[in-house]
Amino acid sequence: MEGDCLSCMKYLMFLFNFFIFLGGACLLGLGIWVIVDPTGFREIVAANPLLFTGAYIMLAMGAMLFLLGFLGCCGAIRENKCLLLFFFMFILLIFLAELSAAILAFIFRENLTREFFTKELKKHYQRNNDTDVFSSTWNSVMITFACCGVNGPEDFEDIHHLPYSSLEKTTPEACCQRELQSREGMFVNKEACLEGIERFQNRQGCYTVILNSFETYVYLAGALAIGVLAIELFAMIFAMCLFRGIQ
C-alpha cells in the first residue's frame, strides 16, 4: 500500500510539474518573441514603458517556471533525491519571497496614499529632465495613462523650482493630450496646452485613473496570490513526502 501511495504521488507530482514546465516554456517563448521580434512589434512595446516592463517580467517568470517544472519532473520521474531537494528549496525561497512581499505591502500600505504621492511629486519632480529617474518615470506614467499629476494639473502650480520655458506656465509637457498615448505620439495642440488651455490638457489626476484601472483586478490578484501560495505549499509537501519515501 505504501509503495502504491508513493507511486501515485510520484506520477501526480510529475503531471503537476509537467504543466508548470509547459506554462513556463510558453511564457519564456512569448517573452523572447516580444523582445526580439523583427516585424515591428518590439517598437510598439518599447514605446510603452508598462508593456516594456511587462515583457521582461513575463520573460523572468517564464524562465523561473521552466526551471521549476524541469526540476520537479526530473526529480519525480527519476526518483532523484538531489533534484527533489533542489525543487523543495527553490519553491521554499519563492514562497518566502512572496510571503515577505505580502507582509511588506500590508505594513507599508499607508504610504500608498494620495497625500504621500502628492508630497513626493512636489518635492522631486523636475519636468522634462529624463536623466532624473523620478521625473522620467512620472512623465511615462502621465503619458501612458493620459493623466496629469496626482490630483490634476493644479499639483504643479506650487512647484516653484520647475524650470519653465518661455511658453510654459505650470502644466508639464507630459500632461498635454496626444493622438497616441506614447512618447512618440503627436500632440493634439502642444502650444495651446502649455499656455493653459484646458481642453488640450489631460485634466484628470493619475491617482484616480490608475486606481480605477486596477480596481477590477485587485480581488482577482488577491485570489490568484492565495491560490499560488496554496499550490506552492502543497508542492513542497509532496516533494518532501516523495523525498522521504525514496529509499
From TrEMBL:
Source taxon at top rank: Eukaryota
Membrane spanning stretches: 12-36, 56-77, 84-108, 217-243
Main subcellular location of this protein, as a coarse class: membrane
InterPro entries linked to this entry: Tetraspanin/Peripherin, Tetraspanin_animals, Tetraspanin_CS, Tetraspanin_EC2_sf
Family of this protein: Belongs to the tetraspanin (TM4SF) family.
PANTHER family: TETRASPANIN (PTHR19282), TETRASPANIN-18 (PTHR19282:SF249)
Protein name, entry field: Tetraspanin
Organism whose genome encodes this protein: Ploceus nigricollis
Gene name tied to this protein: Tspan18_1
